[in-house]
Every structure is written in C-alpha cells, then in structure tokens.
C-alpha cells in the first residue's frame, strides 16, 4: 500500500498479515452483523479504486469509512461512496446513527463527512491520534 494513502492511519502501512486479518474480520462482521464493506470500482475502467463500508468501533457504535488508492483521489469517489453508504444504512440498518472519524489534521476526509451531511460531535483520541468524530442520524 502507498505510504501516502496510509499517512492518516495510526498503524501506518499494513502488512500482508494485517490485510488478511482485516479481510477475515470483515467477513465475520458481514455474517454476524450485516455491516458490509464494499470494493469501489471505477465504472469507466472497471479498475479497483478502494474500499468503503461499515464496522464496529469502540463503544459499540457503527462506523462508516473509506480509503482509496492515491491515483483516484480528487475524483469525488469518497463523497459519492459515503453518500451511497449513508443511504444504504438508512434502508438496511436499525441503529439511530452512524459515526465516522478521521484525524483532526485530515482536512480532505473531514470535508467529505461534512459535505455528506454528517455533523461534528466530539474530538477524541483514537488509536493514539486526535480525531474528529462525526455522526449521521438515520
């Protein structure tokens, strides 16, 4: 994985073992909780652009998140993906809200959350990094 893509992740570049573990956790989450993760494919080319989906975070809330390969940055895919995920959540999940967070310094991701209609509710430490947390009411 590109170090620039992972620059805002507290654990940095993932190893193959960490990627395999994440895939296994995602499969279990889908089976147990119906919180899917999706591959994001660029329609024009059919190329893999990144991933987006849901997961459980500390405290038991459902998080929405996304990450894209660097070559796909600036194309609006994060915005489009987040809006689609929030619409999917409204139709398929029975929780009162969805949360998202990013490091307080990651202005691009925080802007995506705001533009999708998410609202800031706290700044807190997550995995040793100061993060802004947003919510979206379902």
Total strands: 6
> How large a portion of the residues is in β-strands, by DSSP E?
25-35%
The mean pLDDT is: 85
CATH top-level class: Alpha Beta
**Could you give the order of strands across the largest sheet?**
1-2-3
Task: Tally the structural domains.
Answer: 1
Rg, rounded, reads 14 Å
Could you describe the 3D structure shown?
Helix content is 31%, strand content 33%. The protein is an alpha+beta fold and 138 residues long. It has one domain: 3-Layer(aba) Sandwich (Aminopeptidase), CATH 3.40.630.30. A three-stranded antiparallel beta sheet has the order 1-2-3. It has a three-stranded antiparallel beta sheet with strand order 4-6-5, with helices on one face. It is globular, with a radius of gyration of 14 Å.
Blueprint of the fold:
Elements: H1 16-33, E1 37-41, E2 48-56, E3 62-68, H2 77-92, E4 97-103, H3 107-115, E5 119-126, E6 129-137
Antiparallel strand pairs: 1-2, 2-3, 4-6, 5-6
Provide a concise account of the structure shown:
Helices cover 31% and strands 33% of the residues. By secondary structure, the chain is of the alpha+beta class. The protein has a single domain, classed as Aminopeptidase.
């Amino acid at each position: 994985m590109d170090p620039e893509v992972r620059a805002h992740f507290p654990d940095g570049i993932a190893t193959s073992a960490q990627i395999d573990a994440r895939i296994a956790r995602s499969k279990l989450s889908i089976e147990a909780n119906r919180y899917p993760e999706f591959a994001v494919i660029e329609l024009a080319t059919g190329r893999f652009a990144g991933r987006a989906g849901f997961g459980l975070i500390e405290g038991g809330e459902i998080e929405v998140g996304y990450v894209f390969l660097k070559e796909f940055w600036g194309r609006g895919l994060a915005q489009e993906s987040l809006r689609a995920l929030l619409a999917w959540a409204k139709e398929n999940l029975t929780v009162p809200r969805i949360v998202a967070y990013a490091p307080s310094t990651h202005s691009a991701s925080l802007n995506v959350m705001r533009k999708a209609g998410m609202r800031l509710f706290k700044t807190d430490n997550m995995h040793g990094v100061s993060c802004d947390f947003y919510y979206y009411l379902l």
